[in-house]
Amino acid sequence: MKTLVVIVHPNSHESGVQSFLKESCTSLTDVTIYDIQEELSSFDLKKTQELLTSHQRIIFQFPMYWYAAPDMLYKWLEKVLTKSLYQSGLKGKELGIVMSMGQKLSAFQAGGTEHFTISELLRPFQALAYKCHMTYLPPFPISLFPYLKEEDKHRLLISYQQYLTKENDHRFVTSEKWAINRLKELSDKGLINDLDNRLSFIQDTLENNRMELDSLLTTLEEMRMD
């Protein structure tokens, strides 16, 4: 699966979170970065549409501006989404949203300080996906990035890489498959050594986690039957 990340930011190089996310993509296979701001001066409609149609998963990545995406995304969509593209060119593809914000996620809920959920605020993109006959993925919000600890950033990196490249399947076995394939990719690129031992360790860990998960599901099922 090939993924296209469309960055929507007036100056992504000066953004801590955007720089972090772009760096997270450098070791990923079949992930293409397209920065709208950087491509403005050389924008080519045909090439841009070919880029969209040649990828199976399309990600819009942006900071939240007044509960929406930056205006440049909508101007870009007005140019790119011709009738032929939204009627058939994007059919069967996936659309995901990566949105950073300066508020806590807990603020975005009924009764919270922002009153509305992230999914509610992003509903226009869900409508866009349906219009283009695409599968809409659950949003990937990033909250208060400058205040994250190093271990939190590491977890964010893994989750983000999974959002870009893992199959849209929330079963544990899919995450297991992704982790093993990711490790093999890093080994092939010479970024890690001692692959066999690392794979053995990870497979043992995943197997233990699966057993714990199976045990938990069994317990929940027994509780339901009681």
Task: Set out the fold topology.
Layout (H helix, E strand, L loop, with lengths): L2 E5 L8 H9 L6 E5 H4 L5 H9 L3 E7 L7 H10 L2 H7 L4 E8 L16 H4 L1 H9 L3 E2 L3 E4 L6 H16 L6 H17 L6 H31 L1
Parallel strand pairs: 1-2, 1-3, 3-4, 4-5, 4-6
Structure characterization notes:
This protein starts with a strand and ends with a helix. The relative contact order is 0.12. The protein folds into two domains: 3-168, Flavodoxin domain (Rossmann fold, 3-Layer(aba) Sandwich); 171-225. The longest helix has 31 residues, at 195-225. The protein is 51% helix and 14% strand. Strands 1, 2, 3, 4, 5 and 6 form a six-stranded parallel β-sheet that branches. It is globular. By secondary structure, it is of the alpha/beta class. The protein has ten helices and six strands, in the order E-H-E-H-H-E-H-H-E-H-H-E-E-H-H-H. Helix 9 runs antiparallel to helix 10 (195-225).
Descriptive tags:
6-stranded parallel β-sheet; FMN binding; 2 domains; Rossmann fold; globular; 226 residues; NAD(P)H dehydrogenase (quinone) activity; oxidoreductase; electron transfer activity; alpha/beta
Characterize this entry briefly.
The chain has helices at residues 16-24, 36-39, 45-53, 71-80, 83-89, 118-121, 123-131, 150-165, 172-188, 195-225; strands at residues 3-7, 31-35, 57-63, 94-101, 135-136, 140-143. It is an alpha/beta fold and 226 residues long. The chain folds into two domains: 3-168, 3-Layer(aba) Sandwich (Rossmann fold); 171-225.
